[in-house]
Amino acid sequence: MAAEFDLIETYLAPLAAGHSGAFGLKNDAAIFPGGRDKSVVVTTDTLVQGVHFLPEDPPDLVGRKLLRVSLSDIAAMGGKPFGYLLSVALPPEQGETWFAGLARGLAEDQSTFHVGLLGGDTVSTSGPPVLSVTAFGRVPEDRVLRRNGARAGDDLYVSGSIGDGALGLLVLQDRLAEVPEAAGRDLAERYRLPQPRLELGQALAEGGFARTAIDVSDGLVADLGHLARGAGLAAELWAAEVPVSPAALEVLAKAPEHLETVLTGGDDYELLFSARESQRESLVELAQQLDMPISRIGRFSKGEGVSVLSHDGAPLQLSRSGWVHFQNDPKNSK
Amino acid sequence: MAAEFDLIETYLAPLAAGHSGAFGLKNDAAIFPGGRDKSVVVTTDTLVQGVHFLPEDPPDLVGRKLLRVSLSDIAAMGGKPFGYLLSVALPPEQGETWFAGLARGLAEDQSTFHVGLLGGDTVSTSGPPVLSVTAFGRVPEDRVLRRNGARAGDDLYVSGSIGDGALGLLVLQDRLAEVPEAAGRDLAERYRLPQPRLELGQALAEGGFARTAIDVSDGLVADLGHLARGAGLAAELWAAEVPVSPAALEVLAKAPEHLETVLTGGDDYELLFSARESQRESLVELAQQLDMPISRIGRFSKGEGVSVLSHDGAPLQLSRSGWVHFQNDPKNSK
Questions:
Q1: Probe site for chain B from A23, A38, A40, A131 (most B CB atoms < 10 A)
Q2: Which of B5, B99, B168, B193 is buried most, with the most CB atoms less than 10 Å from its CB?
Q3: Same domain, B124 and B186
Q4: Is B208 on the interface with A (CB under 8 A)?
């Protein structure tokens, strides 16, 4: 592995080109304009090899997922991302090819999402690689999407489709029997490369469409729990209305018990949000404009707790952690 | 070790109290106001156990040094810090007492430096603890101190005293023979707990006193090299004018060869900066106002490279990396 200085110069400095506040990564700090009437949105995510990704995972995909997970947090607040910091702790035996792959993946997604590398830190460790991204965005001060804004009577919506990420992980772990090859590939791809819903988040914030939002990372039921608790409300989720992809449908057709994986598995990075009933038409139009499914899947009401209802309105019994945790843990039930 | 959720709730959420943009650490992202006509200064530093600190180091001091190293980078740009993110990768066997100590140290320095915890990430690792702080500050847009602002004829100044950090590390490693006990304690303390020069940095930026600045972390000679290269100039450093503490003087009296440790050792976190000759009186006054030594230790001129001169003007021969690196490495000599 090359020395820190060479790694930065060779692989990272090009990622900072054109971003004057990054000072070519020759500075210990970076600057960016504050921006009048704007709030800065900031989020950080850390991935550890062996915990969040595997040594054999393609490094470019690791880099892209790392960045996208943070961008998804920016999207959930309605922010427009502009830059990020990268901190890397690497063991001396880590191959330079791996680092080059990581940088290649970051470069690709930088251009997809119009963000630049502003700075970071590169150090050595005796343990597995630890990667942190801190991402920055801007949002008009009075338009930030928060987790506590839902009101009783609000509709509940989710973007895209739910469950692919969790099913994709099962595919990659060889834990999903008899899934057709093409469907398995689609699901694995969604797990490895989530799609941050930046355009949607910005449109929801700027148009004043949503009252509250979160990105679905812990699982649909658990993240709905976050919104319900944040607002001090009860929420119901209509399982039959939850959008699933064709690939997930193929899995569910053969193994209906995986409905629970879909509802609680997480790693979806779709936006879950609430809106007034009067916004229904606007949201249909927005979905058309953005060419992205937006599904109405439940509602908020006075009370507390999350109810998951089947198509006939009967409560569904779920046993997986996202749900059980929320039901039984006194810390989470307030 | 308690679960991530409990660690955050018990030890970290109190550090975010009173900072509304941190959302009680219940959000995946934080917000802060952009600030009209202000730039945001951001910097990140990562410490790895076994590399940057030792398992037996008091965890509160580890936390405080982690934060202070980042605050020193903010100081070098003239910024006023207001918050930080903390990312922690911990092995399952790490004691909760250790984490509590880390949080205690952070709490103490938060109140010293008026900053708040805005967010972060807590994950597990199979390797040693890896800690990252990303610190934020603000500085008027047109007053940011940069590394490339020196002009030929500028005076060179440094704050406080130089060499204590590097000598303190030798004391802690038992590599400094015959140092009196009190002096050894003072030096070790300076290594363990650097003092970010925030007031000075802000005064230099706001008063327009300095043309360029850097904090001394790599070593006085190496960091002067950064300023000289940044400006495309030569610099001379007058070794006899470099301020040393009484404790360092005691070491140098017995072991004059440690002058090289002082000049190249690093970990000083003092500010090294340039100013016009016409600012000499103002800087004497500023030193009095801040009750802090500011020493004139050299100057910039046309040309390239750093010359270290002894009291009679003869060049000093230094062999340690900071210096040799700069002289011999073609990448660094442009």
A1: A40
A2: B168
A3: no
A4: no
Contact A23 B147 (CB under 8 A): yes
Is B46's CB within 8 Å of A123's CB? yes
Nearest Cβ partner of B29 from A28, A50, A73? A73
CATH number at residue B183: 3.90.650.10
Q: Taking CA atoms, what residue in A is nearest to B325?
A: A5
Final residue in a domain of this structure, among B100, B120, B143: B143
Tell me, what amino acid is at B18? Answer: G
Range of the domain at B245: 155-332
- B230 and A132: CB-CB below 8 Å? no
Say yes or no: A40 and A111 in one domain. yes
Number of domains composing chain A: 2
Residue of A nearest to B77 (CA): A29
User: What does each C-alpha distance from A145 to A75, A119, A211, B18 come to in angstroms?
Assistant: 9, 27, 7, 20
Residue A52 sits at φ, ψ, to 5 deg, of -105, -20
Same domain, B11 and B123: yes
Give this complex's ipTM. Answer: 0.89
For the stretch B99-141, pLDDT in tens is: 999 999 999 999 999 999 999 999 999 999 999 999 999 999 8
Tell me whether residues B87 and A87 touch, CB distance under 8 A: yes
Instruction: Please check whether residues A101 and A230 belong to one and the same domain.
Output: no
For residues A229 and A116, membership in a common domain is answered with no
Whether A82 and A165 map to the same domain: the answer is: no
Average pLDDT of the residues in A97-119 = 96
Pairing of β B305-309 and β B234-238: parallel
Let me know whether A46 and A179 are in one domain.
no
Q: CB–CB of A123 and B36 under 8 A? A: no
Residue A67 identity (one-letter amino acid): L
**pTM, two decimal places:** 0.91
Q: Which residue in A26, A126, A132, A133 has the most chain B C-beta atoms within 10 A of its own C-beta, making it the best mutation to test that interface?
A: A132
Q: Are residues A33 and A175 in the same domain?
A: no
pLDDT, chain B, mean: 91
* CB B264 within 8 Å of CB B320: yes
Residue B31, chain A, CB below 8 Å: the answer is yes
Question: In sequence order, what DSSP letters do the residues of B280-298 get, joined into one string?
Answer: HHHHHHHHHHHT--EEEEE
Backbone angles phi, psi at A194, to 5 degrees: -65, 160
pLDDT reported for residue B125: 95
Q: Which phi and psi angles does B169 have, rounded to 5°?
A: -65, -40
Nearest to A39 among B26, B31, B130 (CB): B31
Inter-chain CB proximity B42 and A119 less than 8 Å: yes
